Amino acid sequence: MRAVDFILEQAINTTSVYDIEMEQLIAEMEVYSAIIGECEKQSMILEYATDASVFLEADDGTADDGGADESDPGEKKKRSFFKKKEKNGEKTDEAKKKWYVAAKEALIKVGHFIMGIFKRTPYDKLIKIVENAPDGTTWEIPDFVFDLNTSLKECIQDYADLSAILSDHFVGFSNTRADNMSAIDTIVDKIKTRDADLKAGSDSQKYASHSSADVLTLLKGLKDIWESDKVKKLKGALRDLEVSKKDLKSVTKDEYKKFNQATKSLYQQFNVINDRTLYIVNPIVKAQKPKKAKKNDDSSNGGDE
What's the chain's Rg over C-alpha atoms? Predict the structure, then answer.
């Protein structure tokens, strides 16, 4: 494979498809969250309603009245009222199940995206290229890339924490609701802080000549993360999500909203970090000149016509 082909493959395959799929999943989560919120609002109104007829003015009387006395309009409306309440509850439960599926699928997508950051980068080959470079070789790499390893490790930990919250709070409740929601707030705050740092570094776009020793430290650090227990645990959390069949427990509208925000923000940050890896890969790969194809002699191809 030519160097330019490798770079193009890295740039194209990393985000385009995932962006479309993630946006779709995030949109689904938000739609189901909105449905759940409206259903819960209606349920609360119905729960505290003292006069059922007030909420049934639009009722056309076609609902199943369970054998209500046709001569008693009040009894018929009363039965219709509770029938609507029951159907509203069923609609809420169905929306919750669909939200959980979308939320789980979104986290699974993020997990596979993280794996892709590592799998698409041939660390051993890049390390060998740098090690075999002539003495005194320097590499033009932006300074901000050298903070990449720390940001990547923090993001992976945030992903593991968010996955655990989905499994615990939304389907188990081994921790309290308040503790889990506070944990999500902490994750979102950490993402925002890293976003500011990443943006500040990107805005400067300051390139500098770095020695082979510096670049090797960066590459070996990334390889160490890939081979670390942190990523092994992430793989385990990803497998747990993929096989999880648990039902969603009671969750509030604000809790759905927080989780949606955290998932979307975390994916967007991984996207930024993934793009930053190209700042490391590109100068190393470009240093390897692609071989020129041999030109055929005029005599071998019949010459010019």
Answer: 28
Could you give the CA distance from residue 259 to residue 44 in angstroms, rounded to a whole number? 23
Which residues is 207 bridged to in the sheet? 142
Q: How far apart are the first and last CA of the chain?
A: 33
pLDDT digits (tens, 9 = 90+) for 177-220: 788 888 899 999 999 999 888 877 666 667 788 899 999 999 99
Dihedral sign, Cα of residue 61, residue 62, residue 66, residue 68: positive
Average pLDDT of span 51-72? 50
Partners of residue 139 on adjacent β-strands:
210
What pTM was estimated for this model as a whole? 0.72
CA–CA gap between residue 43 and residue 1 (Å, rounded): 61
How far is 166 from 210, CA to CA, in rounded Å?
42
* Tokens matching residue 185: 């707030």
**Inter-residue contact 99 to 33 (CB < 8 Å):** yes
Q: Nearest CA to 154 among 292, 70, 242, 270?
A: 270
